[in-house]
Amino acid sequence: MAIFITGGAGFIGSAFIRAWAKRYPTDTIINFDKLTYAGNLDNVAEAADHPGYQFRRGDICDAAALRAAIPDGCDAIVHFAAESHVDRSILSAREFILTNVLGTQTLLDVAREKGARRFLHISTDEVGGSIPDGHFFAEDSPLAPSSPYAASKAAAEHLARAAAHTFGLDAVIIRASNNYGPYQFPEKLIPLALTNALEDRPIPVYGDGQQVRDWIHVDDTCAALRAVLEKGQSGATYHIGGRSPLPNRALLTKLLDLLGKPTSLLTEVADRLGHDRRYAVDCSKIERELGWRPEIPLEEGLAQTIAWYREQATWVARARSGEYRQYYAQVYGAL
Ligand code: NAD
Ligand code: DAU
To answer: Whose C-alpha in 224, 232, 306, 328 is 20 to 30 A from the C-alpha of 199?
Structure first.
C-alpha cells in the first residue's frame, strides 16, 4: 500500500507515521510537509529506518510539488497539514486561509488528478463552536466556528465534502477533540504548562480557567484514524473524543499534582479573544459503527506524557529555540 501524508512532521501526523511504520513495515509512506515552525523532523526520526518511508518538503498550496510527490493511484491520502494554533490565528489569519483553505483545495484537486483511492481529511471539534452545557456536537449538527482557525477548518471540510459530492472523491472526514501526548509543540496548553512547570515558571491561565475541553491521547486518535481509513463510510464524518472533559483549571491542577508542583504556578492572565467556553463532541457514531473507543485513561496518558517531556529536554530546547529550522533552511532552502 502507498500512503501519502501531509503535515507528517507535526504532532499528530508524526504520531500517525510512527505507528503506521511499525504496523505496516512493507508500505510506502510519503511524508509531505512544508516544515513550518510546527514541523520538526526529529518527530519522525524513528520512522526514517523504515524501508518505504520518504520525506518530501513542499507546500500543499503548490500543485506542481504535489503532482511530483503523489504516486498515481495512491491508496490513501491522509491530510493533517494545517496552521493549527488558535492564538496565532487571532494575531494573523492569513497563513490559516492560505494553508487550511487554499492548500486543502489544491490537495483535493491533485488527489483527483492522481486517482487517489481514499482521502482522509483531519478536521476539529472547534468547527461546531462553543457548545452549551448539557448539549453535544454531533456529526450532523450545524457548523458555527468562532475563531479564524476554526473558520478556516470549517471551510476546509466543506471543500472536502464538496469534492466527494461533486466529483465522487472517496473522502472521509474526522473531527477530533483536544489531543495531547509526546512531541506536541510547547505552545499548546498541556506541553506549555508541563515544560513551564518543570522549570518552576508560571503557567498562564486564560480568563477564569473554566473553559471545558475533551482531552484525548494522540495514540487513541491515531487508532481511530486507522479504523476510519480502513472501514469508514465514503463521504461520512466521524467524531473522535477522549470522553475526558475537564475545565482548564481542573486539568492543570491534575497535571501539577502528577508533577509534584504547587498550584501557585497557575497565573490568571487576560482571556483569549472570543474564547470558546466548551467543546463537547458526541463520538457515539464511531464507537457504534467502527467499534473504536478511546483506551488511554487521562491520568495514565498524562503520566506517560510527563515522563516523555522529562526525558526529552533536548527535544524541548530545540523546539523552543527553533534550532532545527535553521538546519532545514540550509538543507532544503527557502520555500
Ligand atoms: P501541528 O501544528 O503540530 O502540525 C502541522 C504540520 O503541518 C506541521 O508539520 C507543518 O510543518 C505542516 N504544514 C503547515 N502548513 C503546511 C503547508 N502549507 N504545506 C505542507 N505542510 C504544512 O498540528 P497538529 O496538532 O498535529 O494537527 C494536525 C491536524 O489535526 C491539523 O489539521 C489540525 O487542525 C487537526 N487537529 C488537531 C487537534 C489537536 O488537538 N492538535 C485536534 C483536532 C484536529
Ligand atoms: O479542540 C481541538 C483543537 O484543540 C484543535 O483543533 C487545535 O488545533 C488545537 O490547538 C486545540 O485548540 P485549543 O484552543 O482548544 O487548544 P490550546 O492548547 O491552545 O488551549 C486549550 C485551552 O487552554 C483553551 O481553552 C485555551 C487555554 N489556554 C491555552 C494556552 C496555550 C490557557 O488557558 N493558557 C495557555 O497558555
So the answer is: 328
Q: Which protein residue has the closest C-alpha to ligand 1 atom 1?
A: 10
Closest residue by Cα to atom 25, ligand 1, is 11
The total number of structural domains in the chain stands at 1
299 contacts 234 by C-beta, under 8 angstroms: no
CA distance 182 to 202: 21
The pLDDT value given to residue 332: 85
Question: Which residues are 98's β-sheet partners?
Answer: none
Q: Which residues contact 258 (CB under 8 A, 6 or more apart)?
A: 299, 302, 303, 306
CB 103 within 8 A of CB 32: no
pLDDT < 70 positions in the chain: 335
Which CATH number fits the domain that encloses residue 165?
3.40.50.720
By residue range, what is the domain housing residue 137?
Answer: 2-332
Question: Does the Cβ of 84 fall within 6 Å of ligand 2?
Answer: yes
What is the number of other CB atoms lying within 10 angstroms of the CB of residue 63?
15
pTM: 0.98
So what's the pLDDT on residue 127? Answer: 98
CA 215 to chain centre: 13
Burial of 260 (0-12, 13-18, 19+ CB in 10 A): exposed
Distance CA 30, CA 55 (A): 6
User: Which cell goes with 295?
Assistant: 483506551
Q: Which residues line ligand 1 (CB under 6 A)?
A: 6-7, 9-13, 33-36, 38-39, 59-61, 80-82, 84, 99, 103, 122, 124, 153, 176, 178-179, 185
- 158 contacts 142 by C-beta, under 8 angstroms: no
